[in-house]
Design brief:
The structure holds 2 protein chains of 2 kinds. Chain A is α/β, with parallel strands linked by helices. Chain A is built from 17 helices and 13 strands. Chain A has a 5-stranded mixed beta sheet, sandwiched between helices. Classes of the chains: A alpha/beta, B alpha+beta.
Chain lengths: 460, 171
């Protein structure tokens, strides 16, 4: 086994796996909260905002929006309150690095949250935590209590004029709550239907006040940027394209999650831009059972598929896009070996998004359901080649990108469909022909999977 | 039922009110309140929805609207003492998660969404538990059980039979 990225020393995972890493004592012993103390003594909120902007930090939750730019949309001189929401609703299939951070190093997350609240002048931070993260809840509650006792939270933190309260708000098992305005609606006590933007949350967000929503890993990065500086952060990753002034580049350390058919599933840290192959073979011990990878989800289910021959793709913000995927997403990589049927991937993905569509926008609510029914029919041995065109049509017409939905959930539903059909059409056609040898060529609308006359008769 | 009798005990009302100072609106306490009631009663029956609405100055339909958005809250009868979610999303499914969900269904003689006859377990499927590194995974109450196998399911079921304690007591 060769040593992957030998010169890189993990920062986000530096404490993870060490004894009592979740306690304040261990975090402080490793240098924790020094950045906060120094910042409150020597830096203004504007200084921190400029530092984060200079670092080109991009959000780690999926969209990759520049964090400093997001913060800079907050109105200046607002009388308050301003809110910070910590997006800890991590629910994208293949994604679990926020869980690891909150369980094993909650103070790192809190220090980033406190510093980010200071920079954005937020007086209240809500951690929107998915219900299923029970250990994260216990660890965060304890860490918050430790912070209060130590003077890192509450009124006049460390003797400064800055005050902050942090409240944990538990979700109830809905993927859509990870969408930032869905999260806000859910926190306000409404169904989590995403909002039309603008207004963006920075202008009118939680309780109609200026609000910043940031992912757990993003906030952890802020703590390190304040501690080590923007130059340190920009010393690693994929530089911005010098010919494109709007490219913020892909800088800093990143948590890469690997799961599926690998020998060592887990979360690993490397500078942004790690080649997919390096992640699978170098970190995760290769594909299991000595097999080859047929397909790889590069960044959480919604990003779609890379083919087994596209594994030189760099996992930075642009790499997966260049390979026809939705983006880097959450860098939650799922490896599927050569024995795994692509139709099973499609079924699993379509089922997930049909289940998690919030129902607000018709193209998403109906499109995800139709896609699931088409794929179910193929799996039941009644597929037609034409169904692939119908699926592709759904994939091309639902989402923000074609302009038919309010939020990106439908784009996330579309990309697995589109990439599976674009990249594995031969296999899918073979599956349909093999399982429906007499009917695969039909083009007339076939009867639904459920036997309608029988259903009607039964209901009489 | 006499008019004075309520579903929410004084304790439960106090626990809900304790959330008020954390938010600028009472509406924001809907989800915390639903969780509290679900934890104590095992479900949120319609009369409890009306009482929550009364505490939060909302119309009952507003509380019901939120409740029904999430697949999380039962209304018809209390769930089992332990709530079990078996993940069926891709990372778990490609390592046998769906077969294990089916196996647990057989062992408990229930389908996902149902509660065992003795009231011990409510079984559900989950969409991605965020434990893909431990796939296949299931969550039993507060306990995450990773690298799930038939043997681990057998042990879990045997633990249920051992006594009134939940599987957490065997931790």
């Amino acid at each position: 086994m060769r040593e992957p990225v030998a010169e890189f020393e993990p920062v986000l995972l530096a404490n993870v796996g060490k004894e009592n890493s979740h306690t304040l004592a261990a975090y402080e012993a490793a240098g924790g909260y020094r950045a906060l103390k120094q910042a409150l003594r020597e830096k203004t909120p504007g200084d921190i905002l400029n530092l984060v902007r200079a670092s080109n930090l991009r959000g780690r939750g999926g969209a990759g929006f520049p964090t400093g730019l997001k913060w800079s949309f907050l109105p200046e001189g607002h009388p308050g309150p301003i809110y910070l929401c910590v997006n800890a609703d991590e629910s994208e299939p293949g994604t679990f690095c926020n869980r690891v951070l909150m369980e094993d190093d909650p103070h790192q997350v809190l220090e980033g949250t406190i510093l980010s609240s200071y920079a954005t002048r937020a007086s209240v931070a809500y951690i929107y935590l998915r219900y299923e993260y029970t250990k994260s809840l216990r660890r965060l509650e304890r860490a918050i209590a430790e912070c209060r006792a130590a003077g890192y939270l509450g009124r006049n933190i460390l003797g400064s004029a800055f005050s902050l309260e942090i409240t944990i708000h538990r979700g109830a098992g809905a993927y859509i709550c990870g969408e930032e305005t869905g999260l806000i609606e859910s926190l306000e006590g409404r169904r989590a239907w995403p909002r039309i933007k603008p207004p963006f949350p920075a202008v009118e967000g939680l309780f109609r006040k200026p609000t910043v929503v940031n992912n757990v890993e993003t906030l952890a990065c802020v703590a390190h940027i304040v501690a080590r500086g923007a130059d340190w952060f920009k010393s690693m990753g994929t530089p911005a394209d010098p010919h494109n002034p709007r490219d913020p580049g892909s800088y800093g350390p990143k948590l890469y999650e690997v799961s599926g058919h690998v020998n060592r599933p887990g979360v690993y840290e490397a500078p942004l831009g790690l080649p997919c192959r390096e992640l699978i073979d170098g970190f995760a011990g290769g594909v299991w059972k000595g097999r080859k990878a047929k397909a790889v989800v590069p960044g959480g289910l919604s990003t779609g598929l890379l083919r087994g021959d596209e594994l030189d793709t760099k996992l930075d913000f642009d790499g997966p896009i260049c390979a026809g995927c939705l983006g880097l997403g959450t860098a939650g990589t799922i490896v599927l070996d050569e024995s795994y049927p692509i139709i099973d991937f499609l079924y699993n993905s379509c089922r997930f998004f049909a289940h998690e569509s919030c129902g607000q926008c018709t193209p998403c609510r109906e499109g995800t359901q139709w896609a699931l029914e088409l794929v179910s029919r193929i799996k039941a041995g009644r597929g037609r080649l034409r169904d692939l065109d119908l699926l592709a049509e759904i994939g091309a017409t639902i989402g923000i990108i074609p302009g038919t939905t309010i939020c990106g959930l439908a784009d996330g539903a579309a990309w697995p469909i589109k990439t599976a059909i674009n990249k594995f059409r031969d296999e899918l056609e073979e599956t349909i022909k093999r399982t429906n040898p007499t009917g695969y060529g039909q083009v007339e609308p076939p009867p639904a999977l459920t036997d309608r006359p029988a259903c009607i008769a039964a209901n009489r | 039922m006499p008019a004075t009798q309520t579903i929410l005990t004084d304790d439960l009302r106090e626990a809900i009110r304790a959330h008020f100072p954390k938010y600028p609106t009472r509406r924001a306490v809907v989800l915390p309140a639903l969780h509290l009631v679900e934890e104590r009663l095992g479900c949120v029956p319609p009369p409890a929805v009306v009482e929550i609405a009364g505490l939060l100055d909302l119309h009952p339909a507003e509380v019901q609207d939120v409740l029904s958005f999430y697949g999380f809250f039962k209304q018809d009868k209390p769930r089992g003492r332990v709530r079990v979610w078996v993940c069926r999303s891709l990372s778990c499914a490609c390592r046998g998660g769906e077969d294990l969900l089916e196996y647990l269904c057989e062992r408990l003689a229930v389908r996902p969404g149902e509660t065992t006859e003795d009231g011990a377990v409510s079984l559900e499927f989950a969409e991605c538990l965020g434990a893909c590194d431990l796939a296949p995974a299931m969550l039993a109450g507060d306990e995450l059980i990773g690298n799930l196998t038939r043997e681990k399911i057998d042990a879990f079921v045997a633990g249920l039979r051992r006594g009134p304690g939940s599987p957490e007591s065997a931790e």
